[in-house]
Amino acid sequence: MKDTDDIAALMADMGSRARAAAKQLAIAPAEAKTRALNAAADRLEAAEAEIVAANAQDMEFGREKGLSPAMLDRLMLDGDRVKAIAGSLRAIAAQEDPVGATLDSWDMPSGLAIERVRTPIGVIGVIYESRPNVTADAGALCLKSGNAVILRGGSESLHSSRAIHACLVQGLADAGLPEDAVQLVPTRDRAAVSEMLAMTDYIDVIVPRGGKGLVGLVQREARVPVFAHLEGIVHIYIDKDADPEAALKVVLNAKTRRTGICGAAECLLIHRDVLKTVGQGVVRALLDAGVEVRGDADVAAIDGVVAAGEDDWGREFLDKIIGARVVDDIDGAMAHISRYGSDHTDCIITDDAETAARFLNEVDSAIVMHNASTQFADGGEFGMGAEIGIATGRLHARGPVGAEQLTSFKYKVRGTGNTRG
Amino acid sequence: MKDTDDIAALMADMGSRARAAAKQLAIAPAEAKTRALNAAADRLEAAEAEIVAANAQDMEFGREKGLSPAMLDRLMLDGDRVKAIAGSLRAIAAQEDPVGATLDSWDMPSGLAIERVRTPIGVIGVIYESRPNVTADAGALCLKSGNAVILRGGSESLHSSRAIHACLVQGLADAGLPEDAVQLVPTRDRAAVSEMLAMTDYIDVIVPRGGKGLVGLVQREARVPVFAHLEGIVHIYIDKDADPEAALKVVLNAKTRRTGICGAAECLLIHRDVLKTVGQGVVRALLDAGVEVRGDADVAAIDGVVAAGEDDWGREFLDKIIGARVVDDIDGAMAHISRYGSDHTDCIITDDAETAARFLNEVDSAIVMHNASTQFADGGEFGMGAEIGIATGRLHARGPVGAEQLTSFKYKVRGTGNTRG
């Protein structure tokens, strides 16, 4: 066993092993990566009982720690969930290998043939909370894209993550790939996260998945580049030209289908002209569905709506609660989104093509939607297979991050002895 | 006039003005940006005498400061150079506008139509040394890509940069675009650079162009994401199957055409089997061309070669000097490049297709070349028009950075009232 007291040394050792594994993985054949992922899925299924038992330890720890029922539900693994994780690994295995793909190619008048090809990034650090399935998904997506990964899961899920990680490592071994390609930080010590954020020699990019505590830590301490994953402060704007039926079903679905995901709507903006018609109908339907509606003065005039406080704007409830306010027009809606949004996903409901086009052009969020539920903000629903998260930054990766978004590129230039004049 | 003593306040003011300008610029029509660039070119040509006079002040300051002849040459502007800068602006104006272009689009079984479109990044900070033309090129590329920019040029070129910047601002005004879209830091105080590196609220990415001092400062202090631009420690490997004539002309061109650019070769790696034949011929030709060859023990056996010190490996000479050493095979060459290279540009000379493929696949530099001079490592030679530099990092931008590489993207998702099951 490592001496986990010396976190800096532990992490540096993991980092240098990841770097070495990344070099091998970058040139590994697609077939070997596929084989490793399928073998890991086999191992997971065979180890179902052990994984569920490990998870029981985490659940007990979680209950003692006083985790909310919602968090305990995310943490929990049963036989079906383990099978689903294995299925996800097989799905990633079946995807096309992104590495080496030609992104573009052209010839220059100088006689050079230039080709832009996909390459792995190198070593990825993933810092996440207590969903054990992220261990498998993030590990698999990094492997698929030819990157080594250092996983640092939530402390509550340590036993579950270890059991899943062991299957991934066995899959790597079965396929003759370096076991250090997927490493799991073996300690609950928070200092490991600080180390990861500063390991510029060993980690090329950090993917943080978590709440405000982690986001704050990343903002203060990160020296390694970060694919920002902020909260999903998702807005839906009901325009004056919204179709009443579309508004009703889209908003209800966006808020209530699942309230705990980042694509769930958190704030409703209603054009003043339709407050008494479409707006009121939507608000009543939300109330009937058991949603707490926190409205501004205009919306709060509707029976059953409670008054919103200033801190209800720009807030990710992740619960059966929604903010609601009236705006004078699309500019008012976009100004609200610009001020309170998190550049994740925002939506307009309108039948006016010009208004829709303005919204889609001018709202600068990773995903901008027209007449569709924001619950579609998901890599699977985008056709990307699994996702490691939804990036809210503007650099490199934006929106759902799948295997392809975890790659870089380089230029191959071929000549026949060409010299520059 | 600003109180330039309070650098933090000055920079925050510039930052918030840049942010406001970026919002306008992001939705500005392509035609307005084109008009601004052409108007700036007109203004530059009309102001030729003033610009040359401003440059004379910088040249005097530079001579007093003891700048090298090479640096003074980079700093110097005459009528022809001003005309060339104007020409570069017109060339960027004539390029296709990258913003709003559809990068990909597809339909999902759910009925959603998904489109990936190019967007500006936001606000770009460019920190560079004393080439006044970078003021125009960087300003123009950022404008073309819909980004606001804060330019911080080398202190030696302040008067020249100011004169050029004034023309850019006039161009913006002529086209009805916000003048704050292109701002120049008005002070020589180095504290302005430190501020830029920490302005995460106002700057989305920093493009640093400079020597080791700047690179070190960026590595220590940057909180804003950086498009790394390290030195070009460019290697050429002469394989045992190299064509002698191609080796000779490519190496000579790569080293001697211009020694001061980042694509100039700095280190020659020679397969042991051809040291006495092709290798010796190339080394003698370099010596004949007046290049100082610093060789390992094997190469130093050739008459006229001096012994290399350990610090000659991984060194960017930017001069008529080259390191040269013998390697046992392609693995030895790749190991040397991996240890001493800067992930910029590296080249193999061989007629063996399999060896070439291995080198192009396995060397992880932004540009990997086969049988062509490394002096082609240039945005213009890649067909990108002007470049802001050659990125050596792996994230977002890699290799030559033109207008297209200064953009991000977002997803537009269109439905017809779709809800997720």
TrEMBL record, chains A, B:
GO MF term list: glutamate-5-semialdehyde dehydrogenase activity; NADP binding
Keyword Oxidoreductase: yes
Location in or out of the cell: Cytoplasm
GO aspect biological process, one term: L-proline biosynthetic process
Classification via InterPro entries: Ald_DH/histidinol_DH, Ald_DH_C, Ald_DH_N, Aldehyde_DH_dom, G-glutamylP_reductase_CS, Glu-5-SA_DH, GPR_dom
Catalysis: reaction(s): L-glutamate 5-semialdehyde + phosphate + NADP(+) = L-glutamyl 5-phosphate + NADPH + H(+)
Keywords noted in UniProt: Amino-acid biosynthesis, Coiled coil, Cytoplasm, NADP, Oxidoreductase, Proline biosynthesis
Residues annotated as domain Aldehyde dehydrogenase: 16-286
Entry-linked Pfam families: Aldedh
Ranges annotated as spanning the membrane: none
Pathway: Amino-acid biosynthesis; L-proline biosynthesis; L-glutamate 5-semialdehyde from L-glutamate: step 2/2
Coiled coil regions in record: 30-57
Enzyme class: oxidoreductase
GO cellular component, one term: cytoplasm
The keyword tRNA-binding is assigned to this record: no
EC number: 1.2.1.41
NCBIfam families: PRK00197.1, proA
PANTHER family: DELTA-1-PYRROLINE-5-CARBOXYLATE SYNTHASE, GLUTAMATE SEMIALDEHYDE DEHYDROGENASE
Functional summary from the UniProt entry: Catalyzes the NADPH-dependent reduction of L-glutamate 5-phosphate into L-glutamate 5-semialdehyde and phosphate. The product spontaneously undergoes cyclization to form 1-pyrroline-5-carboxylate.
Family named by the database record: Belongs to the gamma-glutamyl phosphate reductase family.
Name of the protein in question: Gamma-glutamyl phosphate reductase
Species this chain originates from: Palleronia pelagia
Upper taxonomic lineage: Bacteria, Pseudomonadati, Pseudomonadota, Alphaproteobacteria, Rhodobacterales
